[in-house]
Amino acid sequence: MAGRGLGLALLLILPAAVPAAAAEASLQVRVVDASHRALAEVSATLASIDEAGAAYTARAEAGGVLAFYDVGPGAYRLRVEHAGLSPATSDLRLGPGETGWLTAVLAGGALVAMIQGPDNKTYIVHPGDKLLDGAIKSITPQGLVIEQEVNDPLSVVKQREIRKLLRGLEDAK
Fold first, then answer.
1. How many Cβ atoms sit within 10 Å of the Cβ of residue 6?
2. Sign of the torsion formed by the C-alpha atoms of 149, 150, 153 and 158
3. Domain ranges, ordered by start, for the chain
4. What is the pLDDT of residues 7-41, one digit of tens each?
5. DSSP state of 111
6. Nearest residue to 14 via CA among 103, 100, 104
7. What CATH topology corresponds to 5-109?
8. DSSP letter at 17?
9. Buried b / exposed e across 138-152, counting CB within 10 Å, b at 16+?
10. Are residues 127 and 138 in contact, defined by beta-carbon separation less than 8 angstroms?
């Protein structure tokens, strides 16, 4: 991915308040830039990767939010595109009656990540950003790598590498 990228983060699937007979799911995607400002003129495709073969399209206008309603349950590949940026994809699973919320962060260079700090606030981080006792070494579609300074005078090791992987859909429930 040369030049520009897209980070997808924070997928949360919760049961929707729908009648038990309804089998359809829905997905809402909020698209923002690295400064957390909503992006317009974004298009997305949600294509089934199951046997169903269904495909859905949506477009975000001024508010940066797009939605897929009445989606059959199953496994899907979400592809988000914005003019001038490389498209990105993310695989997800929607169950009957579930509503998924996803925030897509578009960046003009390397991937960015959204992390939750010990103060329960959300932060957008980039490779090289300094943390309390370390720095973000790299960000990949699978997660991020943090290089932490070890401040133990008895330890021979002065730095350690911490890998934080993205949580799967099962972990988000």
1. 24
2. negative
3. 5-109, 127-166
4. 444 444 444 444 543 589 999 988 877 667 788 88
5. -
6. 100
7. Immunoglobulin-like (2.60.40)
8. S
9. ebeeeebbbeeeeee
10. yes
